[in-house]
Amino acid sequence: MSVEKLLLSNLSTIEAEITIAKLKSYGIPVLKKSKGTGELMEIYTGANMYGIDLYVPSDMIELAEELLKQENETE
């Protein structure tokens, strides 16, 4: 069993959802954690003003970082 490692932090709701979709399309599972009452705020307003952290399995962190780096270079 692999431990999750922090990949990105303090993302907006839309940034987090786009990143999650990209990583899942490559078969990388993602754990989304909201800070403070951010998750509750997201339910009511559709936005999370406290930021969202994304975690991936530690054995996939390098692959996830490389995929996101490649995506950013092509944009």
What does this protein look like?
With 75 residues, the chain is an alpha+beta fold. The protein contains three helices and three strands. The chain has helices spanning 13-25, 38-45, 61-74; strands spanning 4-11, 31-34, 52-57. 15% of the residues are buried.
Looking at how many chains there are and whether they match, the oligomeric state comes to single chain
Query: What percent strand?
Result: 15-25%
Structural class comes to alpha+beta
CATH class: Alpha Beta
- Count of distinct strands: 3
Q: For the record, what is the CATH homologous superfamily label?
A: Hypothetical protein rpa1041
Strand order of the largest sheet: 1-3-2
Quote the average pLDDT. 85
**Low-pLDDT ranges:** none
Question: Which helices and strands, and how do they pair?
Answer:
Blueprint lengths: L3 E8 L1 H13 L5 E4 L3 H8 L6 E6 L3 H14 L1
Antiparallel strand pairs: 1-3, 2-3
Keywords summarizing the entry:
75 residues; alpha+beta; Alpha-Beta Plaits; three-stranded antiparallel β-sheet
Question: What's a quick, concise take on this entry?
Answer:
This protein is of the alpha+beta class and 75 residues long.
